[in-house]
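Researcher: Before we compare anything, I want clean individual predictions. No alignment, no superposition, just each chain on its own. First chain goes here; please echo the sequence and then give the structure tokens.
Model: Echoing the first chain and its structure:
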Amino acid sequence: MLAKRIIPCLDIKDGQTVKGTNFVNLRHAGDPVELARVYSDQGADELVFLDITASFEKRKTFTELVERIAANINIPFTVGGGIHELGDVERLLNAGADKISVNSAAIRRPELIGDIARHFGSQVCVLAIDARHTPSGWRCFLNGGRVETERELFSWAYEAQERGAGEILFTSMDHDGVRNGYANEALATLADKLSIPVIASGGAGTKEHFRDAFLDGKADAALAAGVFHFREINIPDLKLYLCTQGIPVRVV
């Protein structure tokens, strides 16, 4: 079995790290460059940077901040937010990103996924999906969770895989910031339907929640923010715990 990955996420608004609940009620969580350096030193497997208001505000991701973060870490680095065209991807890769996360732009123009995969490789293209369970089932949202779409979670993830996405980053909006655990049933369904890695996001509150995401949700990686930013869970301790649960992780 491949090692499971632990991925801290930096949600960025106005150049600062923030964390909310159910995508609202944001609060300041620290300097993104310093947090990135700490997580890299602690043994995080990857880092995700999401400029959470870039699409809503119709602007580009902060290139200069991406450059500063990349200069301070030695782990793979995914950047998302405000990416609409191949030029945006090239700009961020040149700034130090290893992968690019697309969400709203891919829903509006699905062929963007294939364009990125063809030009830069599938491994560069991460499709981020923000979804909420509605009376009609799991529905995808865009613009940082502000706009509901007709896209259904599982069919959209499968289409993205077929178009060339290398990974799916699934955030349950219902679980985001609540710290009651990940959406493991939906994660397991994604894992069963897809042949590409699935990253769990939304709901981490305890070490056991990470364990459950890997065992019950069949996730390949688990992403979290607040529990790391506010020092409630330490990454080295988390990895040692997962080892005791028989879950393979990279320990430094």
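Researcher: Okay. Second chain, same rules.
Model: Second chain and its structure:
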Amino acid sequence: MLPLANIDEVTLNFSDSSLLILNVVIAVIMLGIAMDTKVSDFREVRHMPKAMGAGIVAQFIFLPAITFGLSILIGVQASIAMGMILVASCPPGGTSNLLTYRSNGNVALSVSMTGISSLLAIFLMPLNIAFWGSIHPEASKILTDVNLSALAMLAQVMLVIGLPFVIGLILANRRPDLTAKVQPYVKRGSVIALIGFILAALLSNISLFADHIVVVFVVVLLHDTLALALGYGIATSVGLDEYNRRPITFEVGVRNTGLGLGLVFSFFDGIGGMALVAGWWGIWDLIAGLTLSSWWARRPTGREGPTGLAEGSKVAS
């Protein structure tokens, strides 16, 4: 058993106004993702069923299941386990497309998968949290205490990620000239705002974070590494080339922990373990992702042209 104090019995300080700001930031992130998505991207799915199917299955079936097993294997307390399940159930993070671009991977596949995964997460995220949490020997205690309503969570997820995504998608297809100008600023600015928000939340609860930094660091390190390895592994197992393995790696490994953090404070009363796992994951995710994408940027994908840059169509086998 990893050495934990009473992290299940403490809560992080978070005001209603802070929660509102966080939800707005997440909504803007989803707006930026949708503004980078075209209806044609969804039609392209039929040309890359293997890549898309592998990524979706890895995100919504394998990752929650493996997370469930990892949390039992390392013997974490209830709120830590529930935090891991929550993170694994989140849709892809807004930086997955940027990391794919930095690593010379298939950006079109990354954008398409982010869009489709975000839509699927509206329904699958609450179901995964409720299912895996309810059968977990430790985390089930959290669900019992908070009396979680999957329908209420579904409603909030639809409001925070569903509505902004639909609005962004409409704008992207009806006003492509406008979205092309503002999308980079919306997407990057909102991600920076989210990182700043998470850092501020951790710093405002620095004593609690300091007490549990070792455990949280180890748990997130193992969990994030496993998620990235799962993405790369499943892409490799279905025969995809390096150009298409990289986006799937980031789509599976990079989670929208801002959304997860918002749900922690909305439905779980800011319980310590869940909030710290979701908060620190958001920071570590960026560190690990930038490190991996920088390393990959110096390694060939097999599709380099005369300029040394990756070439290839939107089609992935």
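Researcher: What stands out in the second chain?
Model: The longest helix spans residues 206-237. Additionally, The chain has 13 helices and no strands.
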